[in-house]
Amino acid sequence: MTIAEAAAFFRDGDRFCIVTHRSPDGDTTGCASALCRGLRALGKIAAVLENPQTTPRYAPWLEGLTVPREGAGDTVVTVDVAAETLLPENAEHLTVALAIDHHGSNTGFAQQTLLDPGKAACGEIVFALLQELGAPLDPVSAGALYVAVSTDTGCFQYSNTTANTLRVAAALRDAGVAAAAINRALFGVKSLRRLRLEARLTESTVFWAGGRVAVCVLPLSWREELALTEDDLDALASFPRAIEGVEAGVLLKEKPDGVVKLSLRTGPSINASAVCAHLGGGGHPAAAGASFKAVLGEALELVRAAFAGEGVEV
């Protein structure tokens, strides 16, 4: 689907239910907020489906917009969702009419898809869509989109940042975004719990391939010992990649249900999405992930095998 075709879809339809992905980040949340506000400004009925995993860091951007499944509209639209398995539990078995996404690994689970893997954030796509629709861009909606594009680019530090990303950010700034306040809240402040976690990860980091690959493991027990919240874990995947000389940063998080979540951040010499595909996951060339059943020791060996499958001996 093109931007123009997607705009026609929204002009012709109504009663939109906007769905975010599991463990919602700034991109999916910001997109949902801005799209919902834009559609309402155009006279459409729109709401964001409640996501039980939304954290206090991002919840304010959805204030007044969310509804339970029973009160949701029947035209379901997902934002920043690459696969049906990433839908929150209360959205399972919904028929998705349109998926708006920027992941090249999108499975095509929706009836129609507005997909642009060349965009650093789904927020760039939603920005273009709202422009095509002629929706007004107030400071709150612009702020939501700024959250989307800034979080998916590491405040414009990551290699996925393009000239278009910066043009969108500039347009949002012109629309009244309080960029400095958002940047400090999302990137400039860490809880003491987070700093204690980073200290533990620093001491326990394991290096493979002569230092090219850094592996951090977060056992479930640490969450309890340090009283960590989901917000304390936000953007933690970038931590091992920040070490000097590291080309691939691996983060393995042990979850309560026996699942291990892999987050992988890489430089241009290693395709993160291809590595994660060996474990049933996917994403972008520089940022991808996977979830699978395993104990931590087994998970490490599975990740080793995934790297080897892409010709990276670790």
Q: Describe it for me?
A:
- This protein has helices spanning 3-12, 26-41, 122-133, 139-151, 163-174, 179-188, 192-204, 220-225, 272-277, 296-309; strands at 16-19, 46-49, 66-67, 75-79, 96-101, 112-115, 206-208, 213-218, 248-254, 259-266, 282-283, 287-293.
- With 314 residues, it is α/β, with parallel strands linked by helices.
- A six-stranded parallel β-sheet has the order 3-2-1-4-5-6.
- The longest helix is centred in the N-terminal third of the chain and has 16 residues, at 26-41.
- The radius of gyration is 19 Å and the shape is globular.
- The model has no long low-confidence stretch (mean pLDDT 96).
Brief description of this entry?
This protein has 314 residues and is an alpha/beta fold. The chain has 10 helices and 12 strands.
Number of strands: 12
Return the structural class. alpha/beta
How many separate helices? Answer: 10
Measured by DSSP, the beta-strand proportion falls in 15-25%
User: Per the principal axes of the C-alpha atoms, what is the gross shape?
Assistant: globular
What is the CA–CA distance across the termini? 41 Å
Mean pLDDT reading: 96
Q: Approximately how much helix is present in the residues?
A: 25-40%
- The arrangement of helices and strands along the chain is HEHEEEEEHHHHHEEHEEHEEH
Unreliable parts: none
Radius of gyration: 19 Å
Let me know the largest β-sheet. Answer: 6 strands, parallel
For the biggest β-sheet, the strand order reads 3-2-1-4-5-6
